[in-house]
Amino acid sequence: MGSKKKWVRKLLLFFGVLFIILLLANFGLNLWLKTQLPDYIKNNTDYKISYKTIEVDLGNGSVFSTGISISNKDPHNNNILGLQGTIDTLRMSRFGMYKAIFNDEINSSDLLLARPNLDVTLAKPVDHKTGKKRKEFLFENITIRQGRISIFKSTRQKLLSVDPLDLRVENLQLTEESVKNKLPIIFDQYSIKGGNFFFRPNNIYALKIKTVETINGQVSIEGLRLIPLLTVDQFKRFYSRKANMVKGEIRKMRLKNVVLDNNKISITHAYFQNPNFSVYRTNASPKKTNDFFPFEINLNEMNMDNGTIQVMKADGTNAVFARNINMKVDQLKLDEKKTKEAFPLDFKDFQISGKDILFSDHEDYKIGNLALNTKSGELRNISVISHNSSLQETKMNLSIDHITFNLNKLKFINQKLNIDVKDLLVENSNGAIKESKLISRKDTKTDLTGVQFPVLIRKVTLKNANISYEKNNQELKLNELNASLNNIEFISKSKTGELGINVKDYTFTTKNLGYNTTFYRLSVMLLKWDKNSFQVDNFAMKPLVSRAHFVKMIPVERDLYDLKVEKIFGKGDWNIFSQNKFINVSQLTIQKADANIFRSKIPKDDPKEKLLYSGMLRSIKLPIFVKNLDVRSSVLVYEEDTPESVGPGKLTFSNFNMYVKNLNSAKMKGKPTLVNININCSFMKLAPLAVNWNFDVADTQDFFTISGRTINLPARGINPFIRPYLHIMATGSIQEMLFSFKGNPSGLNGSFNLRHKDLKVAILDKNNQEKKGLLTAVANLLVKSTSSKLPETVVIEGVERDPTKSFFNLFWKGIELGLKKTLISKHIEKKEHKLKKVVSDVKKMKKNVQEIKQEIKKTK
To answer: How are beta strands 318-334 and 269-273 bridged, if at all?
Structure first.
C-alpha cells in the first residue's frame, strides 16, 4: 500500500515539473519572440518583418499577431516568394514551429488574415535540372477578411489581383505549376466575396470581374470581361502564327457547387446572362498540335440567356454571327478522351434558340430564327447566298420560309453520333443554284468517322418549292414542287468512303417544269412521280434556234427535234436512289405525240461509228426493262435538205401507233431480251403502213429483222420528199409494197415486192418550177409504168452498211435497191442504146443551130 502511494507521488511530481517547464518555456518563448524574433528573422530569413504584438502557444501550436509589416530584403531576388505589405491581424493554428525554423517550411492547419494589404510575387519556376526546392507554404485552410491581394509572376508582371476580398478556402494550392496548367488556384471548400478581380494569364488577354460572391454554395459573378491587350493589327504582327483573338463579356454568372480536384472541374449548375463574345480571325493556319485538354469538366446543368457570338474574318467581315442565343444543356461533359473524338462534347439533353444567325464561307447561310433540342428543331427565314466569286464551283441564291423536324433519337453510341429523324418538313423554298463550268469539282471525302451509320430519316416533306438549277448554261426550273420521301437511309460505303442512300417510298409533283439546253427548251405542265407510277402532261421539246442557225452551229450532221406530247404515263417499280439502281416498267404509254425531225446534209458527215439500236440499248449500264411501250395517236414528220435542194424534203407518218414489247438493256436477270416492235400508221396521210421489227439486245452480233407493207399509195404522196432536193415529181399509184429484210452491223439482205400502176416521173428545173420535157421522156423510158397483177419478188442482197450511218440509212438502202430492181426494165441495155442515140442527135442539132446563129450574125 505504501509503495503504491509512493509511485503516484512521483508521477504527480513528474507532471508538475513538466508543466512548470512548459509554462516557463512558453513564457520564455513569448518573451523571446517579443524581443529577439525580429532580429532572428532579419538574420536568418529573406524577409523583413515587424509587428506590434505576437503570442505563441506551444501547447496547441497557435500564433496570434497584430500590426504586421513584411517586405523582402532583396526585392530583386526572384528565386524566393516575394511579399510586400501589411496585415492587421494574423492567426495560425497548429503552426509547425520546428519545420518553420529548421526545414524552411511554413505549415499550418488554419490561417487567418484580417485586412491584409499584400503584393505577392511568385518565385521563379524551379529548375528541375538543379534539383533545388523552393520554400513551401502549406495551409489546410485559409481565411482572408477585408483584404487586398495582388499576385505577380516572377517577371513582375501582374497575374492576379482582387480588392476587396473576403475568402475562406480549404486545401488551397498556389504554385507556378498551377498557373501553367491554367488553374492558378485549386481548393476544396470555398466561400468568397470580392471585387475588382483581375487575372492576366499571358501577354494577350486580361480577365476582369466587377464582383464575385458565394451564397449558400453558389458563386455569383457580375461584370466579367475578357479583354485583349492588343489591337487586331498588333495581334497579327506579334502573333502571326496564331489564328484567333477573342474578346468577350458576361453580365452575370452563377455557378453552384464548384469543385476543383486534381484537374477536375465539377459544377452542378451554371447560368450566364448576356454573354457577348467576338473572335477575330487572322490569315494564319491553325497550328496542329498534339496537346490535349488537361481538365475534365462535368456540368450537371447549364443555362444561357440572350447571348451574342461574332466571328470576324481577316478582312473584317462576319464569318459567324448570332444574337439572342438562349441555351440549356443537361449533364454536359468534356474530358481529354472526348477532345480526341469527332464530337468532343457529351450531353444528355439540350435546348438552344437564337436569332439573326449567320455562317459565312463561300456562301452566306442566314437563319432568322432557330430553335433546337434533342427531340425537335425549327428554323425560319433561311437563306443561302453565294459570294460574287468566279472561282466558286457552285453559286446559290436560295430562300426557305420554314424548316421543322422531329427526332426519334439523338445520342452517342460507342463514341459516335447516332441520329434517327422522325420527320422533316421544308416549306416555301425559292431560288437558284448554278454550277460553274470553270472549276472542275475535286474528289473530296467528308469525314464522317464520328457518325454511326445508317442515318435514318423516316419522312421528308417538301412543300411549294420553286427552284432552278443551271449547269453548263443548261437550266432546269421546278415550279410548285411538292415531294414526300419515306424511310430514307444514308449508308457509308466502307470500301470507297462515299455516302449511299436508300429511299423506300416517295412521291413528287411539279408544275410548269422547264429545262434549257444549248438547242432546246424542254417543258412539262405537270409531272407526278412515285415508286410505282408516273405521269407527264403536255411535254414539249422546242428548239431555241432556227434551222439555219442550228446548221451553222453544228460541226457535223445532227438531227434537230421539235416535239410535243399530250400525255405520258407509266406503271411498274424502280429504284433510282440506292447503289442498286434499276427501272422495271410494266406499261409505258405515250399519247398524242407530235414529233418533227429535221436533218441537213450541209454539215459534213459525223465520222463516229454508229451502233444499231440493240447495241445502243446494251451499252446502257442501268438495268432497264419495259414490258410494254405504246405510242398512240401520234404524228412523226421527217425532213431533210441538201446543199442543192430547194427547201427540205418531207416524210409524214400520221395516226402513228407503235407497240413495243420487252424494251430492255439486257441487264435485268430473268427478263426476256428479244424486242418486238409493231408500227401502224398512215404514210404521207394517204396510205396505211405496217412495220414489224425485231432484235435481241443480248445478241452481241446485233442481228435484226424488219418487214412491212403499204397499199394504195398515190405516187404524188412522196413528192413532198423527193421534189425539193431530187427535183422530181411522180404520178400514178403504188398499189402494194412488201419488204422483208434481215441484217446485222455489216449490211442486210431479204426480199422486196412492188405492185404499181401508171407510174411516171417528171424532171424539174433547179427551181422546181418547169418540167424538162426531154429528160422526163428519157427517164420514163427506164421506168416500168405498170407492173403485172402478180409481180415477182426481187431478192435484195449485198447491201453494205456504212458504219458511220444510222440504222435507217441501211434500211433505206434496202428499199432503194428494191425499187431499182422492180421499176427499171430488164431490157435496160436496149433502151440505154436508144437513149445514147437520142442524146447524140440532140447534141448535133444544138451544134447546127449554133452554127446557123453565127452565120446570121456575120451577114448582118
So the answer is: unpaired
